[in-house]
Amino acid sequence: MKTPIISVQNVTKTYNGEKPVYALRGITLDIIQGEIISLLGVNGAGKTTLSSLIATLHPVTSGDILYNGKSIYEDLYNYRHLVGFCPQKVNLDDDLTVEQNLVFAGQYMGLSKEDSEKRAHAFIKEYNLNKYRNSKPDTLSGGYARRVLIARSLMHSPEILILDEPTVGLDPHIRHQLWEIIMQLKNNGTTVILTTHYLDEADFLSDRICVIDKGRVQLIDTPTTLKTTYNKSCLEDVFIQLVQEETETE
Amino acid sequence: MQTFSILRSLALALKTDLIKYFKYTLLDKIINKLIWASSMLIISTYILPQLGIQSSYGAFIAAGIIVSVAFWDAWGVSVQFVSDLDNNKIIQYYATLPYPASLFFVKQILFYTIRSMIPALVILPTAKLILLDHLDLSHLNILYFISIFIVANVFCATLSLLMTSLVNSMNSIDNISIRFLFPMWFFGGSQFSWQTFHAVSPIFSYISLCNPLLYAMEATRASVLGTEGYLPFWSCIVVLTVFSMLFAYIGSRRLMQRLDCIR
Fold first, then answer.
1. Where along chain B do its domains lie?
2. Using CA atoms, how far apart are residues A182 and A201, in angstroms rounded to an integer?
3. CA–CA distance, B216 with B149 (Å, rounded to integer)
4. Quick one: which of A6, A17, A58, B173 has the fewest CB in 10 Å?
5. Is the pLDDT of residue A1 over 70?
6. Chain B contact set for A78 (CB, 8 A)
7. Domain A4-88+158-249 in CATH: superfamily?
């Protein structure tokens, strides 16, 4: 039994307002070191909320999240050094160039200016961003902006990378290029938490899939086991059946 | 070690803000403020006296403009902040860097202070050039001026944080400027001293003591034109400091709540 790098323990998240929204209703989930785990679910299921809690963007309402057996909130700032977060919405600094965005990101996370520059140049080369190194992010196409965003979240060599819908709205060939980048990260030992709507993407990339429904974990398993269990050839059919079962139960 | 790392990240975030400000915004800011200040000074010194207003009114306005520049800059900062909250949410990236969210807001206050201080610095020399003998600087108290210059700019920075926290979205941004800032500025001593207001309406002048901008205006004028005829200088400093702490606390608390940050 592999020890989990991240252990989500009975986590709930409620957004208070005129009408409280119960986004997560007691999620328990172990994430194994070096795996790619995909969080799947319909809109509003709680995938983005869960990934943003693991990224420490927001606090949990109750429950705990452990990193190597220790609550992340006990040593939040060190934990943030270990996590890279790539949000759904491109939030690069449009006043800085692509290169500056990367160099500053490395420095915020404790790298020296020289190391940060070296690493930024390596990413610029690796992700084919050379042409755009001095461009402002708001002039980039969706695919290139997404690459910069991934590079920024990797500047400090995090152990865990959280990707929230990284390929949404991108052309198929760009999506496939990003898949290669994600697979390469896994090969380098990075644990990847992937939130996605695309079932082919989850099928291709994931070691395990976690289906979330109405703020609860519906099931967790490998894509192959899910397909075998539900006797389906592709993950999309499994997902459709799960949604239908859920609707019938209601 | 961790404290050092936190401070280093914060200092770097401040440096990034300043680099962006110096590179893309500062020159435009200075030009805009100079046009605004020059227009007001020319009118108040050379045109309004033709309507019977004292010729010293230009000097009175000049000292107030130093605060007005920072006050309205605070509004500009708030608009930018709200626009980010409505759109790209770059702040969410900065809020997840390895430092406490509360210190992030301290960094913001520091940046806003520096940002408003720099254009305000050119106002006094410009005023002297336009007003010539109409602006007598023999009463200028350097210690007082430096003190109120810093305190007033910190106050405006905290005010901008508070305003940002009060605006729900870009759609409602005008509500704050028209309903809150304009009355605050007009009745905050931008056009007349508290003593003048008191002579016209004692009751309303006492009510206006709740307006913190009044203390910034009064103390700045006292430092440039002499203390006679203005509220006690050090009392103004104390009141402004208290308001600044209050605004910083409420503003950052409300924004942390809105962003749902880990505290």
1. 2-259
2. 11
3. 9
4. A17
5. no
6. 2, 98
7. P-loop containing nucleotide triphosphate hydrolases (3.40.50.300)
A110 and B8 Cβ atoms separated by less than 8 Å: yes
Give how far the C-alpha of residue A143 lies from the chain's centroid of Cα atoms, to the nearest Å: 17
β partners of residue A11: A27
Q: Is A130 on the interface with B (CB under 8 A)?
A: no
Number of residue pairs across A and B with CB atoms under 8 Å? 69
A59 CB near a chain B CB, below 8 Å? yes
> Per-residue confidence at B96, pLDDT binned at 50, 70, 90?
confident
- Cβ of A128 under 8 Å from any chain B Cβ? no
Question: Which chain B residue shows the shortest CA-CA distance from A108?
Answer: B9
Whether residue A185 contacts residue A35, with contact meaning beta carbons closer than 8 Å, is answered with no
pLDDT digits (tens, 9 = 90+) for A54-107: 999 999 999 999 999 999 999 898 899 999 999 988 999 988 999 999 999 999
CB contact under 8 A, A89 and B89: yes
Mean pLDDT along residues A111-135: 92
Q: Which of A77, A91, A109 sits opposite B92 (nearest CB)?
A: A91
The ipTM assigned to this model is: 0.83
Does A15 reach chain B within 8 Å, measured CB to CB? yes
